[in-house]
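Dock zinc ion; give full complex structure.
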Amino acid sequence: MDNKNSLITKLTNLLSKLPNIGPRQARRLSYFLARYNPKILDEIAKLFWDISKQIGICENCNFIFEREIKNQKLCPICGDTKRKHKFICVVEKDTDLISIEKTGKYKGVYYVLGGLLNSFENDIDKSINLKPLIIKIKESIHKKEPIEEIILALNFTSEGYLTANEIKNQLKPYGIKITQLGIGLPIGSEVEFADTETLIEAFKNRS
Ligand SMILES: [Zn+2]
């Protein structure tokens, strides 16, 4: 049935690398796609091609963005001089940033960690990309306009708490003000799914 080099097997292997997709699900999805409208498949294929060529990762904040010019290094938020670069809001992932941007109220910049810590993983660097943020804060101390506040906008889950504590510990030596999103977000809630009003309140009530 399944030949190691068949297109379906190749697709299954690739799809199973995606988050939350197991091998069985990947195989089911492959067969589903194989029967799908060829025109739409062509469109998806072209879109994947464009994404791989035009998407960049911001050198400053790790946010995924679409390049408007070749070799663009900063995302539109970091490249915007009207944003307040002395406020850095730390989020787990790109979609959390999008949810906060939707509020239209936050005027600082961001830092995307790329994950959260969990109690099973001992290697911090494997779970979160914290080092560049620490370097940035270290360097900022000597600058004319140093970073004033780090706002932790992490999920209200055990992973979120664990990550917030680790960041606070690692940033302690630099004496920088660190706040966390406040009341409004119930325990267990995730930033990405919080509604706009709740997020605005949580920002106002940060402490
Ligand atoms: Zn950026």
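Observed: Residues 38-54 form the longest helix (17 residues).
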